Amino acid sequence: MAGQTDQLVRPGSGRGLLDVFGDRFLLKLLVRKEIKVRYRGSVLGLLWSYVKPLVQFLIYFVALGVFLDLQRGTPNYAIYLFAGIVLVNFFTECLSNATRSIVDNRDLIRKIYLPRELFPVATVWVSAAHFLPQLLVLVGACLVVGWTPSILQLAAAVLIFLMVAVLATGLGLIFGAINVYFRDSENIVDMIVMVVTWASPVLYVWTMVENVMGSWFWVYQLNPMTVAVEVFHWVFWEPTLNAEQLTIETIPPGLLTVWLPIAMMISLGLLFLGQLTFRRLAVHFAQEL
User: Fold this and answer.
1) Contact 118/278 with Cβ under 8 angstroms?
2) Where do transmembrane segments lie in this chain (predicted)?
3) How far lies 36's CA from each of 30, 32, 131, 174, 203, in Å?
């Protein structure tokens, strides 16, 4: 009898994100549910994964590439632009949906106990499902213009995907938990989503920022999404340039040796902070919802 008592676990306690890996079947069900609910009654369904980035690309390309003539100083500007849009869309969708995930699943949370982290993590997987078709379009466009990446660049693309997923999960855990108590969190995240496209070199080249900020350029590089977009450009845009076009500076100094490790540490730190914040606030989710 004493041996059985030692194995008892306090109701509602868990191991946080580690429980998500132990409940992969539940995670799969939640991802499937999120996709079905999102496209219920939709005519295009998953085709919206192509339509939204395509419209964004056309607007930015015409407004900035044609009207402001940014394409003149940036070879293959269409590839440069779309590579940044695809990655930033993945991050913003992850963060926005993770922030709303707990509130949106209030009915389920009130009825049964399951690892609350499942909900934000499920939204990241759903966003990854939307990211894949956009990535395939990007790869196809790159191949058309002579994309010849190295093994290191392909590995870097996978690493950046994982880093952005970790970053979005960490921030999603923080804002998702706070949003249960203060619904203003959704408005804050909406502002972050609006700013992040302009706070990273998606629509412009990083040298423009360096020319303005000078010795303070390192502050700009502390943004993990800035580094992620720059590496994505190195992976997908730089291998499409010919020898004459490669005379321009395509990536900032120390991008892979200094800034990428720093961005990864910041992302992991935010994931750790997000888990701590989420676990502390998750105790009263059912009551607050």
Assistant:
1) no
2) 50-70, 77-98, 118-147, 154-182, 256-274
3) 10, 6, 17, 26, 33
Smallest CA-to-CA distance from 224 within 263, 175, 180, 195 is with 263
**Can you tell me whether residue 149 is helix, strand or coil?**
coil
Distances from the Cα of 75 to the Cαs of 71, 87, 160, 199, 249, in angstroms?
7, 20, 23, 22, 12
- Each residue's pLDDT expressed in tens, for the chain with a length of 289 residues: 445 545 555 554 567 787 777 777 888 888 888 877 776 666 566 677 778 888 889 999 998 888 888 888 888 999 999 999 999 999 999 999 999 999 988 888 887 777 888 999 999 999 998 899 899 999 999 999 999 999 999 999 999 999 999 999 999 999 999 999 988 889 999 999 989 989 999 999 999 999 999 999 999 999 999 999 999 999 999 999 987 777 667 889 999 999 999 999 999 999 999 999 999 998 888 777 6
Distance CA(233)–CA(193), nearest Å, equals: 20
Residue 196 in tokens: 């992040």
| Total residue count of the chain as it appears in this document | 289
Which amino acid is present at 285? F
Q: State whether residue 159 is helix, strand or coil.
A: helix
